[in-house]
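Annex B, item 7. Sequence and structure tokens for protein A, then protein B.
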Amino acid sequence: MKKSYYTLFIFYILLLCSACTSKIILIPPDENGPIEGSVQRSVGEASVSIIMPTGENVKGTLIWVELDKSPVVGAANIDGKTATAMGGNVGGNAMYIGTLVGDKGTKLKMELICNSFTVKCTGVAVSNDGKTYNVILK
């Protein structure tokens, strides 16, 4: 019964924030950053749009995944480079997972660990050219 109240609470918070626009920040491995984008959240997903320093428009949808109580490991692997994120349901964690695609061919595989109560997230994005970005979703 407790889990159903928890799920209902999260659903209610996301519903209230269904028209909320958040900020996503990519921190690149070099000095060309940070790169900011916008996030439109709705129940169970978030639409992301980022203009890269090259002018490329990178867009996509991240899916909200609730974690169970066992540890979870996520990995993004592009062209032999791997970035991992690990988490579990300690204090109500969840993840956003997805791939963003650019209008000039860039692909960003993104995995974020999120606090379900504050819906603030941190994680990694790996591009198809091998760059790994630290990511903050506010």
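Protein B:
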Amino acid sequence: MSNPRKRAREVVKNALSIALPDFTFRPAPYRSGSAATLPVYEVATPRTDISRESVEDELQDIRLEVVLRVAGGDAIFDDLDDLCQPLEAAILAALVGEFEESELTRIETATAPDGAEPVGLLLLTFQTRARVALGNPI
């Protein structure tokens, strides 16, 4: 397996490109701009906790975050909530073949004023686990 953090981002990005065909992937954090550039999504792995299992391998517990930004309206929170379940299913299905354990651990919604129109934010936080062979320990 390539770097587990990188692989987690790749797997989720690929799953979201299918689940969210009208969204644009942004590899770097989205900066405020026109609502015309929305909807967008980002995938990040901001934290990994590592524990040694043996002299041969370690466990990496990877925190994976998916952020969606959509143009706001009167029902923005309902719209964001409607996205949660299908996205959770698509992401977990993609991770299951690559990682030992994966689960959704947090859902956050908010609005952020970007320009003349509010933007709805959906943050899905997942925890996934990778077993990594250490090679030839000294």
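Comment on protein B: The chain has a mean pLDDT of 88.
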